[in-house]
Design goal:
310 residues, alpha+beta, BirA Bifunctional Protein, domain 2, Rossmann fold, 2 domains, 7-stranded mixed beta sheet, 5-stranded mixed beta sheet, 8 helices, 30% helix, elongated
Length: 310
């Protein structure tokens, strides 16, 4: 804990600060039919959300931690091109009534978010009037492989809801103080995040993300059992593997694997079986022949563990 503090609401003690609550929930929005678009815009979405209750002086530290985490998370999934957007209150007076809280609270919350966002070194784009009614927001805007921008993770600083719920904690000096609340969504909409990944990779996922990581294709039916043994070794290593033992001809099986964008295809014929080896075929059509089964398994496991872009 950042502080040896007791969190209280209406006189009841809860725990020390910071208090972090994580939850997944389904959100329903009555979207017009014309704007619903695949997974990227749905009426019922699953949202990951968290709420951190911290002392006011620790707000910047918690926001910094959350931003660093979500940026590393996006990079893990291969999204590396992004900028930040700072959504603030509408200050021109036309829509000011929809925002709650004092001018001082909004100014301080906006300043904290702006300073932490600037520390990342990323471009920070202003979004006047885009804040939620209870506080300003920093959002991560990620660009996919063809340059389209998607709003991903968000972090919001909220002075107002702790005040409206009567939340307070007992500080180390014995005084009662009001915490601040930080909202953060790591993926945002899980459905939209999946849709963005599919668009970003055009279905050609890196091996660690691919639903099927390896397809085993025998040159003829007599090699099905041999490849079944190879597949068993891969499964034992945690690899998602399938065997195409259908009645399709061999060239069609290769074509089907290529169309499905499986990262690796292992092929076996008579010479491979005799040498306890496979032909190791990549998604771009390149192929290594006579690769030992042990080396093939090692290559695949390493590419998964290192999250290699195959």
């Amino acid at each position: 804990p950042m502080h040896n503090l007791i969190f209280r609401s209406r006189g009841r003690s809860y725990r020390e600060l910071p208090l972090r609550l994580f939850e997944f929930g389904t959100v329903y929005r009555d979207e017009a039919s014309g704007v619903v678009h695949g997974l990227t815009r749905v009426r019922a979405l699953t949202q990951d959300d968290s709420h951190s209750y911290v002392a006011q002086e620790d707000a910047a530290k918690e926001i910094r931690h959350l931003l660093e985490f979500v940026l590393s998370l996006l990079r893990d999934f291969g999204l590396n091109d992004f900028y930040l957007e700072l959504s603030t209150r509408d200050e021109d007076g036309k829509k000011k009534d929809k925002f709650i809280g004092s001018d001082e609270q909004w100014a301080e919350a906006t300043q904290v978010l702006e300073e932490v966002a600037m520390e990342t070194g990323l471009e920070l784009v202003p979004d006047p009037g885009g804040a939620a009614f209870y506080g300003p927001k920093v959002s991560v805007q990620a660009r996919d492989a063809i340059g389209r921008t998607w709003q991903m993770s968000t972090v919001q600083l909220d002075f107002n809801q702790p005040e409206r719920f009567g939340l307070e904690y007992q500080a180390a000096d014995g005084t009662r103080k009001q915490p601040v609340m930080i909202h953060s969504a790591k993926f945002g909409s899980i459905e939209r995040f999946m849709g963005v990944l599919i668009e970003h990779y055009a279905g050609a996922f890196p091996v660690w993300l691919a639903p099927v990581q390896v397809t085993c294709i025998p040159v003829a039916e007599e090699f099905n059992d041999y490849l079944a043994e190879v597949a068993a070794q891969l499964k034992a290593a945690g690899v998602r593997v399938e065997i195409d033992d259908s009645d399709d001809r061999f060239p069609k099986k290769i074509r089907n694997a290529s169309k499905s964008k499986v990262p690796f295809v292992l092929i076996a014929g008579g010479e491979d079986r005799d040498a306890n080896a496979v032909s190791f075929r990549f998604r771009n059509g390149e192929q290594d022949n006579g690769v030992s089964v042990a080396e093939a398994v090692s290559r695949i496991v390493e590419s998964i563990e290192t999250k290699a872009q195959v």
